[in-house]
Design goal:
Number of helices: 11
Order of helices and strands: HEHEHEHEHEHEHHHEHH
Strand order of the largest sheet: 3-2-1-4-5-6-7
Distance between the termini: 54 Å
Radius of gyration: 19 Å
Largest sheet: 7 strands, parallel
Shape: globular
Length: 288
């Protein structure tokens, strides 16, 4: 075991949504760094791919796979209690669980808006609240909230997802300032498009209605989304970034990551809004 792994041998990471995508890869990345990882997911029948890759990487013995449904307070409480019984501490929390609801605002039913916020935002708060007393008692800890570039700028057709990630951004800004006196660091990781299941599911589940006045715009958004998904890079880069952040003594608040993410941030900051939205509109029409 190298020095880095030795230093992390007694450190515990809790990851939500670890059955696929960023969560799965982050669980593996932190296990390789020597962490013992509570890799949680809503449905344990989906643990197969994580365990397969962990076995291939030689880190299966560092993973403890367990149930945690972020929308169920009893599940959150049970998971936090079990982790403390087994490990006695939580050093890193990666709030990763989430999904994307797509569709134009008028076409998305209120129950879908609530379902989106319940998982991506309220679920994140619930898990964070369960972990905070533990980290405060330790006088140290790291909370990584997996946001999105959609939390920095909204795109047509993805208002529910953008709203949930904007909420995570504001929550994290406040939380970071509240926890500084307790030695707890809060970080936002803001991925652009990566090759993960979330976008495939979002595209397949786009909400629309017969005779919708937004059909033409929706078709443009779907063409753009499919093209982005096809050309998106592999998601390992996000997991590696999170792993690097865990080793930083004083990480900054925001880490945009992925193709075009920094350009997007700079463009929205410096360009007048009308110019910015014109660029977005042209990008959508260009694929006709």
């Amino acid at each position: 075991m190298n020095n880095e792994n030795g230093q992390n041998a007694d450190k515990i990471a809790l990851i939500t949504g670890a059955s696929s995508g960023f969560g799965l890869l982050t669980a593996l990345a932190l296990a390789r760094k020597g962490y013992r990882v509570a890799a949680t997911m809503r449905d344990l029948s989906r643990q197969g791919e994580l365990l397969r890759q962990a076995g291939e990487a030689g880190v299966a013995d560092r993973l403890h796979v367990m149930t945690l449904d972020v929308t169920d307070p009893a599940s959150i409480k049970s998971a936090a209690s079990t982790i403390m019984e087994i490990f006695g501490r939580i050093d890193v929390l990666v709030n990763n669980a989430g999904f994307a609801v797509g569709g134009f605002v008028e076409d998305v039913a209120m129950e879908e808006w609530r379902r989106q916020m319940d998982t991506n935002f309220f679920g994140l708060i619930g898990v964070t609240q369960a972990v905070l007393p533990i980290m405060r008692g330790q006088r140290e800890g790291l909370i990584v909230n997996v946001s999105s570039v959609s939390g920095l700028t909204g795109f047509p057709g993805y208002a529910p997802y953008a709203a949930s990630k904007y909420a995570v951004e504001g929550f994290s800004e406040s939380l970071r300032q509240e926890l500084l006196p307790f030695g707890i660091r809060v970080v936002l990781v803001e991925p652009a498009s990566f090759r993960t299941p979330i976008w495939g599911k979002g595209i397949e589940g786009m909400h629309s209605s017969a005779g919708s006045p937004y059909q033409e715009q929706l078709a443009e958004v779907l063409r753009y989304s499919r093209r982005s998904a096809e050309t998106a890079p592999e998601p390992d880069r996000v997991a590696e970034l999170i792993a690097r952040i865990t080793a930083m003594k004083a990480p900054r608040l925001r880490y945009p990551v992925g193709k075009g993410s920094r350009l997007l941030v700079i463009g929205k900051t410096l360009l007048p809004w009308k110019v910015f939205e014109g660029i977005v509109a042209k990008s959508l029409k260009r694929l006709k």
